[in-house]
């Protein structure tokens, strides 16, 4: 919990509701009143020592802005990487990369098709870190088109006028390409 607290999670205190939910669920958190929307917490251990955490969840506000089958597809298929935190002495050791790969594999096996993260536009090392792990970082204010069986929608990093956040997106099995109107996902053609 100290690693997550150091990452600045608002309201996180030892022994609090968040920690209790993690202890009871083994890292899977159900959001009351939001069926199908979940959060997951993963940890990286070196021996018995927790050296890193990732918290990923359904992008609730984005999903709730849709209806019907499109909402259901988005809830099960899109996950936002909210927090990646690695203890300072273990940064650069590969712990964060291994943890992110585990998250992508674990959630991918459960139907997640699109991983997104909102990155501070002024934090070049974090944007570079995501790029080196296969994420495409959108330009400021740029969104990514997602096509569902119920139609197309776009996900972004927040209001375009704010320009503080940029979207990092990865869709295993698909290419994230830049077009005239922003990013979009396309099937990868066989070589």
From TrEMBL:
The keyword Transferase applies. GO terms for molecular function: acyltransferase activity, transferring groups other than amino-acyl groups. Residues 1-170 form the N-acetyltransferase domain. Keywords: Transferase. The keyword Transferase applies. This is GNAT family N-acetyltransferase.
């Amino acid at each position: 919990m100290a690693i997550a607290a150091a990452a600045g999670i608002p309201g996180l205190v030892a022994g609090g509701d968040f920690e209790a939910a993690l202890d009871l669920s083994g890292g899977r958190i159900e959001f009351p009143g939001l069926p199908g929307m979940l959060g997951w917490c993963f940890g990286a251990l070196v021996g018995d020592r927790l050296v890193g955490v990732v918290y990923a969840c359904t992008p609730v506000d984005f999903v709730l802005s849709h209806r019907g089958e499109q909402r259901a597809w988005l809830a099960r298929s899109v996950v936002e990487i909210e927090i990646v935190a690695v203890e300072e002495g273990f940064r650069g050791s590969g712990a964060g990369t291994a943890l992110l790969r585990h998250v992508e594999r674990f959630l991918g096996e459960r139907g997640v098709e699109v991983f997104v993260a909102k990155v501070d536009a002024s934090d070049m090392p974090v944007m570079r870190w995501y790029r080196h792990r296969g994420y495409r970082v959108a330009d400021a204010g740029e969104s990514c088109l997602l096509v569902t069986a119920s139609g197309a929608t776009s996900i972004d990093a927040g209001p375009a006028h704010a320009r503080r956040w940029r979207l990092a997106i990865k869709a295993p099995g698909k290419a994230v390409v830049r077009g005239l109107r922003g990013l979009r996902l396309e099937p990868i053609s066989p070589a």
